[in-house]
Write a structure and sequence with these properties.
The complex is a heterodimer.
Chain A lengths: L12 H12 L3 H19 L3 H17 L4 H7 L10 H14 L9 H22 L7 H10 L3 H24 L16 H18 L1 H18 L6 H22 L2
Helix pairs in contact in A: 1-2, 2-9, 2-11, 3-4, 3-5, 3-6, 3-7, 3-11, 5-6, 6-7, 6-8, 8-9, 8-10, 10-11
Chain B lengths: L4 E6 L1 H4 L8 E4 L8 E9 L8 H17 L19 E8 L2 H5 L1 H15 L2 E8 L10 E4 L9 E4 L4 H13 L4 E6 L6 H14 L6 E9 L12 H15 L4 E4 L3 H5 L18 H15 L4 E4 L6 H10 L29 H12 L24 H17 L3 H7 L14 H29 L1 H6 L7 H5 L25 E5 L2 E6 L2 E6 L2 H11 L5 E2 H7 L8 H8 L2 H24 L2 H20 L11 H24 L1 H10 E2 L3 E4 L10
Helix pairs in contact in B: 2-7, 4-9, 5-10, 10-11, 11-14, 12-14, 17-22, 18-22, 20-21, 22-23
The chains are: A mainly alpha, B alpha/beta.
């Protein structure tokens, strides 16, 4: 039991260009550019995938629920299975559960959706722990305050930026990790595993920088939607529209901004 | 790309259909045309054989799903479609004894939730009334005496290290009367299993355990998909049936927490590419389904959820049963199995096992040479073996030093666990982090110990370059002039404009921004041109410069040198020289006449060498081909540069003339260094 399956990059010309660039020591930005060019078509098709939309929509719902007096009840009304006085880990579990339940019997499940699923909980954890100082021990009031603050134009932009930065970091590593470990060792691109880990960090950093393009757009978007929709909140179809535009922007940024 | 879609017509559902259709398969567990073998051997006669019909249905459904799971390929490498082919659509038409139960929303939902999370496939079941169902006896083979006592517990015993640890705990330490259920997927391990059973029987504190062996496979079928993600559903369903026959209402897995949670070992491992065999959510789904089917509060748990594999090994050794360890088998690459080397040493299970054996203090019980590849010092081929090893160690190294926050920043997948381990989310999160940190530290303790053992070989670099220790160790320490290892001196800043071939690629630095490119002849042409700005190169010259071993390109050179423009220039100059000679002779300026005659002789010699017969030649096919090759290579190089470096691409696009005569002639030449 416990079998894990690994794969390689396709042997097509565009993917072999990625392999070649890893081998000859190209930088994180150049490899990101090459990967995005190779994967662009599939990525843009996947921008409508349910897992991505649901993960992003969950983030909007957390901020909306935090504006209400009874945070736990507001979360449950939105489909999050949380106890009274939810802690940060309880919210991570509830977000994960709500995204999973949105795709019963795996209808609409894709790799991008799975990565968005993880990226959403990772982003919530990162921001939550930054603003409450700790994963454990934060009170429900602390957690509610954090998500209420994330509903402002500036902070929601930051939330969206981090989510897309984290997601694109995962997407790039989804491809690059199929090849990079083959270039570790004396006389190779990476002298050792630590050197490869530094490259992985550089790739993540590059994605975080590229995701700045989403920040301003996201803040204005949520402000407009909140003003227009009022109590109704942001719908899934609106979240889908945002997800597609944001993906378009960050893909373009990774292609053009890296030059 | 469409997801694989299969319809499985099972038992009586297959009877009414004739012929074969693509995407449709017939599966029969009994009767004529039987092609699915389902056998439980050595069932003790003390077990109650009057088990409910719904349980026989459960066993059949599980066997059919297990066989079907192996009949259709997953597209593991469909990276561009985001796993569209990894997730298949599996439709089943199955006759059952209790259709009202299986068609009920509660049972149907529970079954689909379990299977869909386990394997990430999409399932659709159509249940019909079984007209002539077989009895359970059709699948059982009885043995044992009637006086055998019913067991206290049913343990799923795979013959691997974890389940061995569970058996040692219950049978050798606690003296429980256990029934061990083993799924025999290959006969290759039969002798080892038998020997291990003998040792377990001898070590039993109470009554020796009972053993039941299960065999499920499809006759005459070459296995197409080896991932077998639905395997634990079969395994558990059989155990449920046996436990109910023994009057029990619980089954227990023994699998270490790291494998049970199975957080992705590498970023490419998304979703069920990491197995969820005993994931806490799977066990929760099993509890729900089996409770509905048995109409009891049925328990399914994992006795080792908060233990690492090294912990399990340490407990086996501490119990005095370390000698059983070499007879347990973890490797999935059974096709390379041999009695001398039962473990391949390259699959994820072998890597995990060997680290656990060494970290758990059982190195003395299991020789390193029982692995085809030594964990620490053998070379690893490029590809899955090396990527697996590198990823495993890298994750362990990182996790061993991660705070709780960093851990959940990195492994969002861990949030899937928190609701299903029977603890408040905070406590569950804390325990998951502690478990992984413990695992990371245990793995790195093995690496540290191995460095100490092999330090001489490491210093002398006699170990293979791709072995684990060399991959982890920095093989290129900075050596200063005195030979003392130290901190590298700060390097000189690189030039702002540079185009050089480095190793297997080109490095271009333009306006301070550096990019790398694969080897290409276009880059060679480009480098030659920018090395001599304003010089005009014929395509033949460039072609030869890139191929110094070639001495001559005759047709190309002559044609290129005397294309229409060049010939016109030569003829014009010859006419001017003739006029100069005539004028000099007329005025008696013999010095000018001599100079002009010399030039005329050179011009005529050049024309003769080019075989010029008085009329400019049209471009030949050979020359056109050569010109196109060179120009296309330069075009491609500039295009590639533009993909990754806008400014450099634009600069070359505007500065490099491409035709029969080529050159680099920018308005202002950057200070290139080569």
């Amino acid at each position: 039991m416990g079998h894990t399956r690994l794969g390689n990059l396709p042997r097509t010309r565009k993917w072999q260009e990625v392999v070649g660039l890893i081998a000859i020591g190209a930088g994180a930005d150049q490899i990101a550019n090459a990967v995005i060019r190779a994967a662009e078509q599939g990525l843009m098709q996947a921008a409508h995938h349910k897992g991505l939309v649901e993960a992003f929509w969950s983030l909007t719902q957390l901020t909306a629920a935090a504006r209400e007096k009874d945070f736990a009840a507001a979360l449950r009304d939105r489909g999050f299975n949380v106890p009274n006085n939810p802690s940060l880990p309880a919210i991570l579990a509830a977000v994960s559960d709500v995204v999973d339940r949105s795709m019963p019997n795996n209808k609409g499940r894709t790799d991008l959706g799975e990565m968005a699923h993880s990226a959403a909980t990772e982003t919530i954890n990162r921001i939550g722990t930054e603003r409450t100082q700790s994963l454990f021990g934060s009170t429900s009031d602390d957690v509610q305050r954090v998500f209420r603050e994330l509903g402002t134009v500036k902070n929601f932009g930051d939330l969206a930026r981090r989510f897309y930065g984290q997601l694109m970091g995962k997407v790039l590593q989804f491809y690059v990790s199929r090849e990079s470990a083959n270039h570790v060792g004396e006389g190779q691109r990476f002298a050792n595993l630590a050197s490869k880990a530094s490259f992985d960090d550089a790739l993540s950093t590059h994605c975080r920088q590229a995701s700045v393009i989403v920040e301003k757009f996201a803040g204005e978007w949520v402000s407009k939607r909140t003003w227009q929709n009022g109590e109704v909140g942001i719908s899934r179809s609106e979240a889908e529209g945002f997800a597609h535009v944001a993906m378009t922007k960050i893909v373009a940024e990774l292609k053009e901004g890296a030059k | 790309m469409n997801a694989p879609d299969m319809l499985f017509l099972c038992n009586e559902a297959a009877s009414g259909r004739t012929g074969s259709t693509k995407g449709v398969a017939k599966l029969r567990t009994v009767g004529s045309g039987k092609n699915v073998r389902l056998e439980l051997d050595d069932v003790g006669r003390q077990l109650n054989q009057n088990i409910p019909a719904a349980l026989i249905d459960l066993v059949e459904i599980a066997a059919l799903v297990y066989v079907a799971d192996q009949m259709e390929h997953r597209g593991a490498n469909d990276v561009e479609s985001m796993g569209a082919c990894w997730r298949r659509r599996m439709r089943f038409e199955i006759p059952v004894r209790v259709p009202t139960l299986w068609k009920s929303a509660a049972v149907s939902d529970a079954l689909i939730e379990l299977l869909s999370f386990l394997s990430e496939d999409e399932y659709d079941f159509t249940f019909t009334q079984y007209k002539s169902p077989p009895t359970l006896d059709s699948y059982l083979s009885f043995a044992g005496s009637a006086t055998d006592k019913a067991p206290d517990s049913v343990i799923l015993f795979s013959g691997g290290l974890d389940s061995l640890g569970g058996v040692v705990k219950e049978v050798a330490l606690e003296g429980r009367s256990a029934l061990l259920l083993t799924h025999e997927s290959t006969t290759k391990l039969r002798t080892r299993h038998r020997a291990l059973r003998g040792m377990i029987d001898s070590a039993a504190k109470g009554p020796p355990p009972q053993h039941i062996t299960v065999r499920v496979n499809k006759k005459d079928q070459v296995e197409r998909e080896y991932t077998q993600r639905a395997r634990s559903f079969l395994y558990a369903s059989l155990a449920v049936a046996v436990s109910r026959m023994a009057g029990l209402d619980a089954i227990r897995f023994y699998e270490n927490g790291i494998v049970s949670l199975n957080l992705p070992i590498s970023p490419q491992v998304v979703g069920s590419r990491a197995t969820r065999t005993t994931h806490p959510r799977v066990l929760a789904c099993m509890r729900r389904l089996f409770s509905l089917v048995t109409d009891t509060k049925f328990g399914v748990d994992n006795g080792f959820i908060w233990k690492t594999k090294s912990d399990v090994v340490r407990d086996i050794v501490a119990s005095g049963n370390g000698s059983m360890i070499p007879l347990s088998t973890s490797c999935t690459h059974t096709w390379v199995f041999s009695n001398a080397k039962p473990h391949c040493g390259t699959c994820s299970q072998c890597i995990d096992r060997r680290f656990a054996v060494l970290a758990g203090g059982a190195g003395a019980f299991e020789r390193a040479d029982t692995y085809s590849h030594d964990l620490l010092v053998d070379a690893r081929d490029a590809g899955e073996s090396r990527v697996m090893m590198a990823s495993y160690v890298e994750i362990a190294q990182q996790v061993s030093e991660m705070s709780e926050t960093d851990f959940f920043n990195r492994f969002g997948e861990a949030a899937r666990v928190l609701m299903h381990v029977g603890l408040p989310a905070d406590e569950a999160a804390r325990k998951v982090h502690q478990l992984y940190q413990q695992h990371g530290k245990q793995v790195m303790s093995v690496v540290d110990a191995a460095w100490e053992t092999h330090k001489v070989a490491m210093r002398k670099r006699t170990l293979p370059e791709s072995c684990l220790l060399r991959l982890v160790q920095d093989p290129n320490p900075v050596v200063v002039a005195s030979g003392v290892v130290g901190v590298a001196p700060r390097p000189e800043p690189p030039p702002a404009y540079r185009l050089v071939q480095m190793g297997q690629g080109w490095t271009l630095r333009f306006d301070g921004v550096e990019k790398h490119f694969e080897l290409s002849v276009g880059m060679v042409y480009l480098r030659e041109m920018i090395a001599f700005p304003t010089k005009r190169f014929t395509v033949a010259e460039l072609y030869v410069l890139a191929r110094p071993h070639m001495k001559d390109i005759p047709s190309a050179r002559s044609e290129a040198a005397f294309d229409q423009t060049a010939a016109h220039a030569y003829m014009t100059r010859l006419s001017d020289v003739n006029e100069a000679i005539a004028a000099g002779e007329k005025t008696g300026d013999f010095t000018s006449v001599s100079v002009a005659k010399n030039e005329k002789a050179q011009l005529l010699a050049a024309l003769k060498a080019a075989n010029f017969k008085g009329r400019p030649k049209t471009e030949s096919k050979d020359h056109k081909r050569l010109r196109d090759r060179v120009r296309n290579a330069v075009d491609r190089a500039i295009e590639t540069i533009a993909k990754y470096h806008n400014a450099a691409g634009t600069h070359f696009e505007n500065s490099v003339t491409r035709g029969s005569v080529m050159g680099y002639n920018p308005p202002e030449t950057p200070p290139w260094e080569f």
